[in-house]
Amino acid sequence: MCPDASGRDDADALHADALFDAAAAALAAHGTDEVLRGVLNGTTAGVVVLDPGLRHLYANPAFTRMTGVPAADLIGRTLTEALPEVADRPDVLRQVLDDGRPREVVISGRTPADVPGDRRWWHCAYHRLTAEGGREGLVGIMLEITEFRQQQHDLEQARHRLALLDAAATRIGTTLDVDMTCAELADFVVPRLADLATVEVFPSDAPHGAATRAGALRLRRTALAAVPALSARANALGVTGEFVRHPYGSAVQRCLATASPVLWRPQDDDEPPEAEHIAEYRAMGIHSLLVVPLAARGHAIGAMTLARAGLTPQYTDEDTVLAQDLAGRAAIGIDNASRYARSQGIALELQRALLAEPGSPHPNLEMASRYLPSGTSAVVGGDWYETIRLPYGRTLLAMGDVMGHGIEAAVDMSSYRSILRYVAATDLPPHRILRQLDTLICEESESVRPATCLLALADPARERCAFASAGHLPPALFGEDGGAELIGVPNGPPLGTCFGGYDLVTTAFQPGQVLLLYTDGLVERRGEDIDVSLARLANLKLPVAGDLDDLLDEVLRGLVPQAAEDDIAVLAARVRPRPAPDMGEPT
Hints:
Structural class: alpha+beta
């Protein structure tokens, strides 16, 4: 029968006692020294015996193998004397000698057995020995834990790198502006990774493949950041916004030509002069530079230069990897901003080309107009205006706004203007023109975006103006006293929605009055009720008797902040006074 648990425990204890008895018999039969020597020579742990002065009396073969120091060179010397690059703990060893309590420590360093750059760790246990005659000493047992410590170190570095990259993702690329994104990158790496950082990008007109072409590189410095101790001298390196030339063979040129980081130490005499700022680098105490490429979607867009000075450690391989990761992520944001800027520039040029000067009104009507693209990061929109001469001295004024932004909105804006000219030639009243516009747009293409539109048919001979609106903001009529009245025009659905249904409103339009048509960018503000915005327009006092261009300047100064949130189109019209009849010479 099998014994129970208690039976097994008793059997194990008896077995252990038997083993100890066998070990004691072996020591008695063969001699203690011979058995211990065999154990010490066969173990993989390093074992040393030290005298009270911490000098080596004995070192087993495993210890000499792991350190690369022969036993003959160890005997009579302390660990610090025999292995000066190992961080010893003599204080701990003396405590063991004093109170007899065993202690364990971890030491690290380099030994003659290591390759250059290696660093190793050992776990050491020390016990006090007391021999006959009261002589004392220490025995130390060392086990190497280098691989475990290296794994810990690598894991800690990986966590640090991931935490830094996560923080960078929220701090870099918050806008679609190239200079702002570059500034965010420079500000982020200082002081986390550098004491001084510059970011430079290729200008927008740089030829494709400029990074690999022979000769000097021309880059635009988009950002510079430095710790307070270097900020005063950093200006000597150049001002942001300026172009910087890097000669052939310089660190930046080599970095971009090879698409790999370049580490450069200005104090090394064997290095060729890398830049015209070598004197400034040395004056600031910079001891190492790291240049990493900024590349996105397979092409170079610029370079980031990092510098360390003073007591900051020189760059390591781990720093280089981290800098590359940061540069790679930031380069995507910079490239996105650059592509966005090019797209916005194309859209703006297209819109300006399509938004030609409106037709000339009849001589009985004065007119002035303005178009201002957005001052923020928003893409240009589809704001447009037009004037069309009609029979009997009448002029049709139009103000529209295609929904959305970008090149598509600018193209759709041109479609609306073209169709409006065609429909206006039928000499229909404004509300019927809107109805025809809506029908033709819906029939022409379903891809054309909806648009708001306000039509004003000015008839100076009858001193009146007729209005119709397709979802547009109301016109403003300024009287001779400079005060404004918002004309209540019933709002129909936007054009291109295929709903139709527009009403006509007629009001007096007399000489001396100024009619103002505009898009929503003139008055609307984010987070503000539209009634508040329109009230601000209605409260303006304008010089209606002066030049209409001066009047528009006053409107824009009074209503538009420095950076408008949307495109603005505005048109002002005024009836010219009728000339007095010629009564002839008196008889």
